[in-house]
Amino acid sequence: MRQYVSIFISILILTGAVIAYNLIVNREKQPRPQPKKVAQTAFVQRVKNGTIAIQIKESGRLVSKNRIEVYAEVQGVMENTSKEFKPGTHYATNEVLVKIRSNDYYANLQAQKSVLQNLITSVLPDLRLDYPEAYKKWDDYLKKFDMDKPIRALPKTTSEKEKYFITGKNIYTTYYKTKNLEIVLQKYTLRAPFNGILTDALVTPGTVVRPGQKLGEFINPTIYELEVALSKSMLPEISVGKKVQVSDSEGTGKTWQGVISRINGRVNTSTQTVKVFIDVEGAALREGMYMQAIIDALPKENAYEVANNLLVNDSQLYTVEDSTLVLVPITILHRTKYKVIVSGLADHTQLVSNTIAGAFAGLAVEVKTLTD
After folding, report:
1. DSSP annotation of 246
2. Would you kindly state where each structural domain of the chain is located, as residue ranges?
3. Is a pLDDT exceeding 70 seen at residue 322?
4. CB distance 336 to 298 below 8 Å
């Protein structure tokens, strides 16, 4: 009995396995449903060419047109002057900016002047005997010799013999040594070359100043220079002397009148831009302020404005013909941060105004027209 039961159960298991196998095979043979192709949506706008007024807007930082970095050429202790050497201090033309102690050097200069004076005195007796025509001018020079004033130029010799005689007495060498000491002495006192303001001060009275040390920066706060970078395509639109509107980049509404003063002769190879320098004056202006220059250029005719991100390879745009994408070559007339003005599009062309993922020429699209 048990034997028959085991045989029956085995037959049931085998039959079930065969049925399950057939079900799996039949299911795999059934065709899988294909996904429906969904056409990409292209939002289009009808092109209407026209005349577009162009304003070139570029930002830059103000720098004083007249600015100097103050450096020391001599060594010594910085002394106090009538004004504090600190940022914000105003100085008039020729007013003392920095005074360096020069007592020792001044004493050396006076000693050298005395040497020159003694040399000229020693040659006067010989001049009276051998060169009487030259004696008077050298005697007058010696009488007017002032130890407290800069030395005057030596009298001009009137003959070769006189010149050789004076040269042999070492007077010319001593004179130029003395003159050189006078020139160096002037470097102990630095004066303002123009009316201006100190914007940076790196030393204080009592500081030991060394040759080549930077002491501060001095600027003229009445006229500034704005440097902007313009596309090389705009070079025909600008020229030296062209008036430019300059405004605060923070949008305060204040404007100033500027003038293009210089145009660089070299194009930046990486950005294809040219540096342009604009002079601008104003009481409210300060060095370091970021400003925006607005330059009116010639209007572009038969042109159309599109978004920058629609460009393909920087020279083409997608249009739609018969629900299919078509690449149309265009010419860029002017470019801004977000917009580009182009030519080459025919009126009433259906221009794609949105980016389409995986777009290519010939792609079928579903067209939706945008209204103006």
Report:
1. E
2. 42-52+301-369, 56-63+222-299, 67-101+188-219, 104-186
3. yes
4. no
